[in-house]
Structures are given as C-alpha cells and as structure tokens.
What we know:
Blueprint: E1 7-10, E2 19-22, E3 27-29, E4 32-34, E5 36-37, E6 40-44, E7 46-51, E8 67-69, E9 76-83, E10 87-96, E11 103-110, E12 115-124, E13 130-142, E14 148-153, E15 162-164, E16 173-174, E17 179-181, E18 186-189, E19 207-213, E20 218-220, E21 231-233, E22 241-249, E23 253-262, E24 269-276, E25 281-290, E26 301-313, E27 318-324, E28 333-337, E29 344-345, E30 350-352, E31 357-361
Antiparallel strand pairs: 1-2, 3-4, 5-6, 6-28, 7-20, 7-23, 8-15, 9-14, 9-17, 9-18, 10-13, 10-19, 11-12, 11-14, 16-17, 21-28, 22-27, 22-30, 22-31, 23-26, 24-25, 24-27, 29-30
Amino acid sequence: xxxxxxxxxxxxxxxxxxxxxxxxxxxxxxxxxxxxxxxxxxxxxxxxxxxxxxxxxxxxxxxxxxxxxxxxxxxxxxxxxxxxxxxxxxxxxxxxxxxxxxxxxxxxxxxxxxxxxxxxxxxxxxxxxxxxxxxxxxxxxxxxxxxxxxxxxxxxxxxxxxxxxxxxxxxxxxxxxxxxxxxxxxxxxxxxxxxxxxxxxxxxxxxxxxxxxxxxxxxxxxxxxxxxxxxxxxxxxxxxxxxxxxxxxxxxxxxxxxxxxxxxxxxxxxxxxxxxxxxxxxxxxxxxxxxxxxxxxxxxxxxxxxxxxxxxxxxxxxxxxxxxxxxxxxxxxxxxxxxxxxxxxxxxxxxxxxxxxxxxxx
Length: 362
C-alpha cells in the first residue's frame, strides 16, 4: 500500500531493495535551503527539454580569403543563400581582416520582396585575421527554399578594408546539409541600408550565418530510466517549496518545455520558472499548469509542459529551472536521493554540476 506521505523512499543506485524512511528536515546547503544530509540532495526529479542544437554555416573555418581589399568607399557586402529546412539564424559570421576597425552593421534580407527580416545589428570587427561570430539578440526565423541575403558593412577604418576572393562562387553550391547558395552568391552595394545585389567576378566577401534547423529532436537534461527508485514525499511539515535543477548547455539553444515527474498524491496548480544564475534574472515564466492526481486514482507519471515561446539560453552559462509544489494538502513532490552527488549530463549538450538539485521555501 501507499506509505505515509510524510515519508520518502530511500533509493540509492546499487541497493537492491529500497526502504521507507522519515523525510529529513530542511538544512542550508551552500546558502540555499535544501533537504540534504552531507552531500545528499533530496531533489525534484524532472527533465528539461532543450533543442538538440545543430548549428550550420555555409563555409568551414578552413575557408579563408585571398586577401583584403581597401578603398575609400563604404560597402554593404553580402552572401545570397537559402535553406532546405525551416529554422533560425542564431548568428552572423564574418571573416574579418586585422586592419578592419570599428562598428560594422549586419542585416538579413528576404530577397523576393526586399524585406529586412533581421537587424540592423552592430558588430565590432578587426584586430586579427579570422572568422568572427556575432550572436544575434533575437534569432531570425527562415522559411525553406527562399532566397535571403546576409550583409555586413565595411567598418570605420580609413581604408574600409574587407575580405575578398574571386571565382569562389561561379556555380551553385552548399554545405552538404541545410544551406545552399546560387551562382554569383557574393553581392555588394554602396547603399548601406539597402539589400546588396551587384556581383563581380564570382567574388565572395566572406559573409556567413550560423543556422539552426528546427526539425531536430529535443533532448533532456536527465536521462535516467524510470526504473530507478523515485521517492514519494510531501515535505513532512507541509511547507510549499520551489524545487529546481541547475543546468548548463555547452552551446546556445532554446528551452521548449519543462518535464516533471508528478506523483499521484500531488495536484492543483504548479508554477514553473527559468532563471539565469549569474544575475538572478527571470528568463522564463512564471508559467502555471496543473499536474498530479490530487490523491486520486491517477498514476504517478511524467508531465510535459510546453512553453508558450522558447526561452533562449547561452552556451556555458548556468541556469536553474524550478517547479513549485502544487495545491494538494500534502504539498507532495517526487525526488531521488543522492541523484546529484557528482557532475553529469546527457552525453550531448546538457550538463549539471554536483549538487544540482535546489529547494527554496516559498
């Protein structure tokens, strides 16, 4: 039968038979109130959906220009391209010459109607020869099989220097995945706020994008099988909590849903939030949803809440996703003991630190 909800199931990997034990009292762990004993976190156990980030560019890092061209004229220099799948431009990519300096202006155009779909974005380039990536403040959505132009102006250096190579795009081509370009894809113009359309000697001006196809599988932070013991506890003292997990993506991406293992004892409205840890900025939410069976006949099960809009995350930055206890009398929640003794991840793009589970009393 069901145990008293003031107790939880002690489940540690390697133990053949878990046992029911009293729930421990909350203590402070690294300044955050948590149910811990020593290095053990009593952790809300849920998965965080994250777009499986596949960022494509037209050209590899090994593709470099023949040299730089200088003059007294400001140019908008661009590349015409299309995609075979819907997706998002996450960044503009430019091969900058060491002699370039100052602010350059990037724009993304839809060719068929000369619509500016992204920008203007200001980018500072120069100092060293090489590819530079400038991530956009907001991703730009693209339709498949539609021609676009990414353009980046010359800078503020006296020579108006830019990278160029002739006879690079005499024929159509692509990156072998989702990105394509037509013959004569390298374009230029002298009106900086207009789409560049002129071509010369099949030249390339080394303007590129980082493109993320949207038709990719989602991935989850925690991929443990559900046959691992899941604990059933209400917190003992009936106190409402926000329960969360610290995570990091190794590449930029988007959170598209929150996944919670809701036990049958819990019920009513739960509140989810997504935070950036460095400055405690609330990036997503609060979102409200109902899960659990409120002590009824429903089984404990995973619940997925799809976000109304994706939440963009940066690579290499710590975030916390949290979900509150519900409105049930027990304030019940699921957790696994000793789940985060060590750092880990899903083997793809998502990782978590040791002690990733966090509890905050509301």
